[in-house]
Known about the structure:
By secondary structure, chain A is α+β, with helices and mostly antiparallel strands. Helices cover 35% and strands 24% of the residues of chain A. In chain A, the strands form nine sheets. Chain A has a ten-stranded antiparallel sheet with strand order 1-2-10-11-12-13-22-19-18-17, with helices on both faces. Chain A has a five-stranded antiparallel sheet with strand order 9-8-14-21-20, with no helix packed on it. Chain A has a three-stranded antiparallel sheet with strand order 3-4-5. In chain A, β18 (180-187) and β19 (193-203) form a beta hairpin. The A-B interface holds A 43, 45, 61-62, 64, 77, 154, 156, 158-160, 162, 165-168, 170, 188, 211, 213-218, 220, 394-395, 397, 402-405 and B 43, 45, 61-62, 64, 77, 154, 156, 158-160, 162, 165-168, 170, 188, 211, 213-218, 220, 394-395, 397, 402-405.
Amino acid sequence: MFALSNEWTVQDTLFDAARLHHAETVFTLGNGYFGTRGAFEEYYPGEMRSTFLHGVFDDVPVSFTELANAPDWMDLEILLAKERFGLDSGVVLEYSRSLDLKTATLRRVVRWQSPLGRVTRLEFERFASLADEHLAGVRLTVTPENYDGEVEIQAGVNADADNLGLKHWQALSQSTIRQGAWLHCQTRATQVGLAGGFHLKVKAPGRTRYARWNVRGHPTLAGITPVNRGQPITAVKWFAYFTSRDQKDPLKALRRKLTYLPRLDWESAHSAHCLAWQAEWDRSDVVIEGDPEAQLALRFNLFQLLSAAPRHNERVNIGAKTLSGYGYRGHSFWDTEIFMLPFFTYTRPEIARNLLSYRYHNLAGARFKALGNKYCGAQYPWESAATGEEVTPTWVPHYADRSKLIRIWTGDIEIHISADVSYAIWQYWQATGDDAFLIGRGAEVILETARFWACRAEWVAELDRYEISDVIGPDENHEHVNNNVYTNGMARWNLQTAFAIIAWLEQEHPQHWLRLRRSLHLKPAELKAWQHVSDHLYLAYDPQTRLVEQFEGYFQRKDIDLPALEPRQESVQSLLGIEGANQVQVIKQPDVLMWMYLQPNLYDKETLRTNYDYYTARTDHVYGSSLGPSIQAIMAAWVGKPADAYEHFMRAARADLFDVRGNAGDGIHGASAGGLWQAIVFGFGGLKHSETGWQTSPCLPAHWKRLAFKIMDQGNLRSFEITQ
Amino acid sequence: MFALSNEWTVQDTLFDAARLHHAETVFTLGNGYFGTRGAFEEYYPGEMRSTFLHGVFDDVPVSFTELANAPDWMDLEILLAKERFGLDSGVVLEYSRSLDLKTATLRRVVRWQSPLGRVTRLEFERFASLADEHLAGVRLTVTPENYDGEVEIQAGVNADADNLGLKHWQALSQSTIRQGAWLHCQTRATQVGLAGGFHLKVKAPGRTRYARWNVRGHPTLAGITPVNRGQPITAVKWFAYFTSRDQKDPLKALRRKLTYLPRLDWESAHSAHCLAWQAEWDRSDVVIEGDPEAQLALRFNLFQLLSAAPRHNERVNIGAKTLSGYGYRGHSFWDTEIFMLPFFTYTRPEIARNLLSYRYHNLAGARFKALGNKYCGAQYPWESAATGEEVTPTWVPHYADRSKLIRIWTGDIEIHISADVSYAIWQYWQATGDDAFLIGRGAEVILETARFWACRAEWVAELDRYEISDVIGPDENHEHVNNNVYTNGMARWNLQTAFAIIAWLEQEHPQHWLRLRRSLHLKPAELKAWQHVSDHLYLAYDPQTRLVEQFEGYFQRKDIDLPALEPRQESVQSLLGIEGANQVQVIKQPDVLMWMYLQPNLYDKETLRTNYDYYTARTDHVYGSSLGPSIQAIMAAWVGKPADAYEHFMRAARADLFDVRGNAGDGIHGASAGGLWQAIVFGFGGLKHSETGWQTSPCLPAHWKRLAFKIMDQGNLRSFEITQ
Lengths: 724, 724
């Protein structure tokens, strides 16, 4: 698929229309303000061109809300001696695309023979500036090889951007300007304003004429210049975005910017961008010696996380598919807190703080959800978007029979996310010592989710315990289960952590505790009730077998012979159906093991190993959840199986580059990317914090010569080097 | 609302943005190939601009399929000395729109003062040619009143047409040409090809420059010409459509046409169009003397039916909202056969034949539906579109709670439509004597629907009769009812008519009967079974009270005091809720009376009167179904209540012109329009056919001086004149 030209470059040397969407995902660029799939500058039939801006959601049927595909910045039409350039016509003589991860720059070189036989070399470079998040640039160099003539470059900004057929934008105003054009539009339902505009400069030996085409919804500037064979000409299109989420008057901000764009030169603006990326890599890079594929794949995954991370906005989160595709419509899940956040918490805590602040700012949505279910406290939505209300689709059309619907239960009963959010806050606080954040924001989330759990747990008098029935755990093959260990365990952890935080606040910041206690109307009686739940919440464990039963009755489900199903190209759930999968033991992703990963001090080595062996044999590693392999890799390392760990690790590492699951076209698997970093640091590196400080207990794959990574610890950058 | 300037013209003299969508519906133009809402040439914010072409459906979530809003032909942007003309800016000094029903020509005159104070008179004329169904034209006359300057007219064809936010078109190719442009696109899922293109000619004293802007998806031609105060300039835009439903290569057909458009002159092309409309009115006009409002409203309704009627296509039907709005997404219902068809059958049988042929060609869809329900024969879909498969949405989102859904049952159990289709075929045959149609197409439909009914009816041994349980009748306030009289009655009629047709075929065309019998595998035993059903199908009637119970148990539903609910602005169903309305006797539209209307010889006068009094008091006339009033008017005339008949008649006549139901913006109420003609002819005119020929037994409103109409009878045009 994609070649390794070096350990920093993802390269593609063959244009293959059959994997157009996969390549678009892989060549996504972003700067944390917007993300743009790697579609071509010029149009290609069937493309899924998209640019998503964080937080710019609009209404959609069934899934309630989705990131609105914005008018795109790369829009260029190129006419070579009046023949329209496009890979779907003529002959592609040479083709290569390379994404330089170090500088976040995408380059395409094409030699193309037109239907009439003209041969042209075209080079495209583009970047989404990390130095100036409103800015994007594309540079085009055209060299006619066997003809003289005229090159026409049409640059536009097009309001006709859609989400797979759904239009979100209505144009408000537009204009062409001296060497550019702008457009002001807003989303139909949510009325988020977006202003986008560009400046185009053609550098050529001959005189360039510019024609201004102020066509409704798609103002366009055409630069027309004479060319001679062998002589290159260059065009630079600078584009800027502003939205009403970050500007009072986005059009005003844009017009100010547009007066500045003509003075921008490619080299300086690109250098500033490269420097900003260098600063990111200085913090976040991981070096693997002895395994170029793992090295490149890991960097690619970290690159995608860094590209999607909001740097100046604490009211947005990263969606399950980052900003790189239509999958899950930009909604955020626990994928952020449990899978992606540790990477940011330990390398870029400023970003982690933004992402966690999003949850704090959306406490109202979580309280609203709890209220709707007649619980108290805060119940975080399974899928979250602009407002923090629950946006999981309730019903989706049946894939085979269009008159039927499938009920999606995750929004109702996959409730562990409320504890996951608190877990990430706690982890962030532990790593950073950011007391201000905990006091001002984090504590309230942890207390309110604890309150939810105390309310949610059901007292079973005859067993003298609390239970939590009718849930879905991380393993979504099993719906409507009782006493899922992950859920019960995390709920108990959330309650215990609330007490720890209260104790700390009482001790260290009594006035803040007083304020919080009052504002949340926390009375001693209620805290006592929480304590009762925390002390009596049921958590399965069989001391005889050391097995932790994933949920009540799991052991009674049918234990099918997984290897006997091979070879297969689909998940066990799709093989057996939703109901069928519910009846057997096969799990979609680690659930008990996930719980043990998050609570490493709770179980002894022997228990870990026993449960590892038991559940690993029953997990759908290849076609189950993409969240599974990285965690599985960590647990394999923890039980001392480096070869197994490596296999799981590479499965996650290849998910998008090699499209292992066949759905890479929908966007980057963000959780898998985040899990990879955890697998490196906590799995292979075996990094652990104890009273004596940080320690590693490595378990490297045999062929890895050296592993090096850094973490931020209480504001200090610490480097770790591991060799065999 | 709309003024009566004369009995042929609907006029609007005040621009009111609040009823923009209503006016768009009222000013719809069409020629049976396409229909275009009366949006303005230039863009207006919040408009619902649409052009629908018959049969050009594409996939849509929830409702399965919808007519795709096509790239529109009127698209003009007008720059007056560089100021963009638009009613949302500057000052509208004068405004009038008039729709001339006689010539199907829409004219708008605006005097407009620009934000900078320039005053301009603009006159727009447009028509959708009835002489050449691929052709549409718009003429613009611009007169600057207080300035000299430059007028720029931008004419385009825009692929960015959407259905309320849903995009159906993907552009395939496009070009600007000498004085025009074209675009070839196709629907995303159904891949219907559409080619649209135009020619623009500006006539002005000065020299006109034309600029060609070949912007992707919206090729545009700009004509720029100098103007002097007081001197008018004129621009004509001719537009042509072709689709892959009527052309093997629509682009080729368009390009041929585009070479011809420059030679077209406005007067000649418009004259041909007017002549074609004159021929329609010669057949179809109805004259009411003494009531200008009723006269104009009736013509308006007939105009809308004629505008939507396919003249050269027997594979399409008219949707419930004609081609004039998004309501019901272009789907066809029994509205066509029972409400609209009599008008065509008796005045334009060629059109009726096309519409009935649509049902014949879609027998496969009806057989597929029967098969899916394990019935034999043909079960017509409640909602029908391109293929004749059932396209009623099964679930729609709840209006108040977005996580809930409402189950729509009509597609499952409102089954009377299969008999309605047969009824229309029989009526057409009776009126036209078109034996060839009956033999070649109609008979098969009637036999296959009879077969369905024989299969559908349930034998109840203990009562020695057949019943039909779990249906919805025409009155949709009551769902899941048993032995609805309309349904049972029409089913029996369908079976009886099948026998009549078989007898006629055996007698007159034995070889055709043999062919049909063989192709349908009809055995004597099966026909005997049909006879048994027909003879024993239960039909309620109480000889004591003369009352016909609408369905079993209707008399036991709660009889609420309807007048006590006044004043109200909503239907009884929306007041009481779906379940609440189900529990009371209030009906949404005549059901028993509808049945008696369609079977005028079955019940005596006294029975008619008794049931009229009983059900009229229990009908939600104002806010129930828009299908009700016209039928109610007929029945009132039949029981000798001309004043009541007139009240119901005018309620139907005003439905769209006065937006009585508040939903005229969704499109024309086609069934109401068709029902009006029936109310005139069969209600007020009392036209009846007996063995001695056609007879009228009029019942005119007191103020009507004269009523005149014509019908086609066995190929002969017969005129009727009624005076007081």
